[in-house]
Design goal:
- This protein is an all-alpha fold.
- Helix content is 58%, strand content 0%.
- The protein has four helices and no strands.
- It is elongated.
């Protein structure tokens, strides 16, 4: 896709200077900046799928595995410097 932009003089100067510092032509550097700063085409799809997989795995845990996970969460909360605990909603409000 070809896109024609009218840049204010100050922005053009800044773009050319940044491109020069990075050893790239201004048009290539502009494409790089757009790619870095635009949201991904499918935002958070991989993260959402991972969370769904974790939910399925959590349903399949044995009682022993669930108890071990609770112990780990309690240990993490106990080791926090903050009085605000992270996992009370998962531990039914009991952290001890």
């Amino acid at each position: 896709m070809t896109l024609k932009l009218s840049l204010p003089p100050d922005l053009e100067t800044r773009l050319k200077a940044a491109a020069s510092r990075n050893g790239q032509p201004a048009d290539q550097y502009a494409v790089k900046l757009l790619d870095q700063h635009l949201p991904p085409a499918e935002p958070n799809r991989a993260a959402a799928q991972m969370l769904l997989n974790w939910a399925v795995e959590a349903e399949a845990l044995t009682d022993a595995e669930s108890a071990e996970n609770e112990q780990i969460l309690r240990a993490i909360d106990a080791d926090r410097l903050s009085d605000r605990k992270l996992f009370t909603h998962l531990l039914g409000g009991k952290n001890r």
